[in-house]
UniProtKB/TrEMBL annotation:
Keyword entries, A-Z: Purine biosynthesis, Transferase
Keyword Transferase: yes
Higher taxonomy: Bacteria, Bacillati, Actinomycetota, Actinomycetes, Micrococcales
Entry similarity comment: Belongs to the GART family.
Protein's recorded name: Phosphoribosylglycinamide formyltransferase
Catalytic activity: N(1)-(5-phospho-beta-D-ribosyl)glycinamide + (6R)-10-formyltetrahydrofolate = N(2)-formyl-N(1)-(5-phospho-beta-D-ribosyl)glycinamide + (6S)-5,6,7,8-tetrahydrofolate + H(+)
PANTHER family found in the cross-reference section: PHOSPHORIBOSYLGLYCINAMIDE FORMYLTRANSFERASE (PTHR43369)
Gene name for this UniProt entry: purN
Length: 207
C-alpha cells in the first residue's frame, strides 16, 4: 500500500472491553501520531468499547449477527457500516468474528488484526493456552494484515514475552496484552505516517 494523507482514518472493530482501542485512542491525542479513530463498530451491544467511544465522542454502531437472516447478510451489513466512515485502515481489536468476503474485498491489505502468539505458531482462538501447553519458553504477540484464512495474513510486527515457570493461561495472557497494546499502537502509527507495502507473504512498513 502507498502512503496515506495524515491523519489516517481508523475504523475499529471490537467485541469486548476495548483496552487496546483505548491505547490507540490515547496515542491519537498527539497530532504527530498521524491517525484518528473515526468510528467504532461492535458485534454486540453493551460492551466496553462502546463506552469508550461514547466518552470520546466517537461515532459507533452495533452490527449484531442476531439482527440478520444469515451470515451473508451480516457480512454485507458490516462492510456497509465500515464504508460509511471511509477508513484508511480498519483495526480488528478484540473483534471475535471472522471477516467475510464483502469486507475483505473492499479493504484487503488495509485490515489489521492482532494475535496473542508468535505466528505462524499457535494460531486460532486459544493461542495463549496452546503455547503454554506446548512448553515454549518465549511467546508473544503478532500484528498482521487480515486475509481469508484464520491468523494467516502477512505479518507486520511481533513482540516477544517470556514464559515464567509459574505462569497460568491468565497470567501469561495479561502480560501478552500489555505487549500487544504497545505493539498495535506503534505499528498503526507507523503505517499511518510511513505507509506500507505487501509483496506476497511479506509486509513492510515504510518506504
Amino acid at each position: 500500500m502507498t502512503n496515506r494523507h495524515a491523519p489516517a482514518r481508523l475504523v475499529v472493530l471490537a467485541s469486548g472491553a476495548g483496552s487496546t482501542m483505548s491505547a490507540v485512542l490515547d496515542a491519537t491525542a498527539d497530532a504527530a501520531y498521524g491517525a484518528a479513530i473515526v468510528a467504532v463498530i461492535t458485534d454486540k451491544a453493551g460492551v466496553g468499547a462502546l463506552d469508550i467511544a461514547a466518552d470520546a465522542g466517537i461515532p459507533s454502531a452495533v452490527v449484531s449477527p442476531r439482527d440478520f437472516a444469515d451470515r451473508a447478510a451480516w457480512d454485507l451489513a458490516l462492510a456497509d457500516a465500515i464504508a460509511a466512515h471511509e477508513p484508511d485502515l480498519v483495526l480488528c481489536l478484540g473483534f471475535m468474528r471472522i471477516i467475510g468476503a464483502p469486507t475483505l474485498d473492499r479493504w484487503g491489505g488495509r485490515l489489521v488484526n492482532t494475535h496473542p502468539a508468535l505466528l505462524p505458531s499457535f494460531p486460532g482462538a486459544h493461542g495463549v493456552r496452546d503455547a503454554l501447553a506446548h512448553g515454549v519458553r518465549v511467546t508473544g504477540c503478532t500484528v498482521m494484515l487480515v486475509d481469508a484464512g484464520v491468523d494467516t495474513g502477512p505479518i507486520l510486527a511481533q513482540a516477544t514475552v517470556e514464559v515464567w515457570d509459574d505462569d497460568t493461561e491468565s497470567s501469561l495472557h495479561e502480560r501478552i496484552k500489555i505487549a500487544e497494546r504497545a505493539l498495535v499502537t506503534e505499528t498503526v502509527g507507523r503505517m499511518a505516517r510511513e505507509g506500507w507495502t505487501v509483496d506476497g507473504r511479506r509486509a513492510r512498513i515504510g518506504a
